[in-house]
């Protein structure tokens, strides 16, 4: 499938939208890291920024967790590395909360 040809204005708008999404995602990660936003609230959120965040990125945003711990937890719970928060099932959300709030 060929990519659509964008006008200069459309390309600029798309780049600005992507930059804004990255900025909002970084803000959310910082709020999670500082404790202003809880893991549970992110998992239950309907916010598109939170919903589209990869589960591994969410775990890595928690204090004391890095890439290795996040990968280990996701492997133990059978969650794919490419899975996004919105794509988690109810059981996976419960298991994730249980594993990360011990």
UniProtKB/TrEMBL annotation:
InterPro entries: IHF-like_H2TH, IHF_actinobact, Ribosomal_uS13-like_H2TH
Biased composition (Basic and acidic residues): 8-22
Residues that span the membrane, as ranges: none
Domain Integration host factor-like helix-two turn-helix, first and last residues per copy: 32-98
Pfam families: H2TH_5 (PF22525)
SUPFAM superfamilies, per database record: S13-like H2TH domain (SSF46946)
Source species, domain of life: Bacteria
Residue span of region Disordered: 1-22
NCBIfam families in the cross-refs: actino_IHF
The protein's name: Integration host factor
């Amino acid at each position: 499938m060929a990519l659509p040809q964008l006008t200069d204005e459309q390309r600029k708008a798309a780049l600005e939208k992507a930059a804004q999404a990255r900025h909002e995602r970084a803000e959310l990660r910082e709020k999670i890291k500082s404790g202003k936003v809880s893991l549970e609230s992110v998992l239950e959120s309907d916010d598109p920024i939170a919903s589209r965040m990869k589960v591994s990125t969410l775990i890595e945003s928690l204090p004391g967790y890095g890439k290795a711990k996040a990968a280990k937890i996701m492997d133990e719970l059978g969650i794919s590395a490419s899975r996004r928060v919105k794509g988690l099932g109810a059981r996976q959300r419960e298991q994730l909360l249980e594993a990360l709030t011990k």
